[in-house]
Amino acid sequence: MLRVSDAGPGFAPAMLSHFGKPYQSSKGRPGGGLGLFLALNVARQLGGSMVARNREPSGAVGTMSLPLAARLGKRLLELAQVYGVEREEGRLIDLPLPQDDLANMLGATRQSVSKQLKAWEQRGWIALRYRHVAIRDSGALERAVARWSQGAAD
After folding, report:
1. Residue 127 in contact with residue 91, Cβ under 8 Å?
2. Would you put residue 7 in left (φ > 0), alpha (ψ -120 to 50) or beta?
3. pTM recorded for the entire structure
4. Are 152 and 49 in contact (CB under 8 A)?
5. From the CB of residue 149, how many other CB atoms can be counted at a distance below 10 Å?
6. Residue 111: partners with Cβ closer than 8 Å, 6 or more residues away
7. pLDDT digits (tens, 9 = 90+) for 107-140
8. How far, CA to CA in Å, does 135 sit from each of 12, 49, 56, 75?
9. d(CA 64, CA 19)
């Protein structure tokens, strides 16, 4: 989770009601108002979300949440598309992929990545091998990533 706050005047109510739409700015500059729009869309692309609110007595805070399951699922699907080789156990990501490396790619701990991978293995979505992952049910993983990207919990 990433949280950014300031001590300025905060958001006008109309700004909060249009949060995430381009060209919504209190500064009145042509072409302004893209920062929060871009941040929100980056969060969505990574399977996360972003909210903004005013603080008391003044200021504003924006919070971006990027769930590990969405980031990890999306990354595995991308790697399988580029490096995948069809095998008996599924679409093998044909490059060494230690869990430490996966965790580093995602800004997560090895333990949290391991826990998520094991949960998916138990569901039959992936198969874990020494330093390798095979996608067994890409459809289930894609649907789950889409749900997580919409903010649904698993």
Report:
1. no
2. alpha
3. 0.64
4. no
5. 20
6. none
7. 899 999 999 999 999 999 999 999 999 999 999 9
8. 47, 26, 48, 12
9. 13
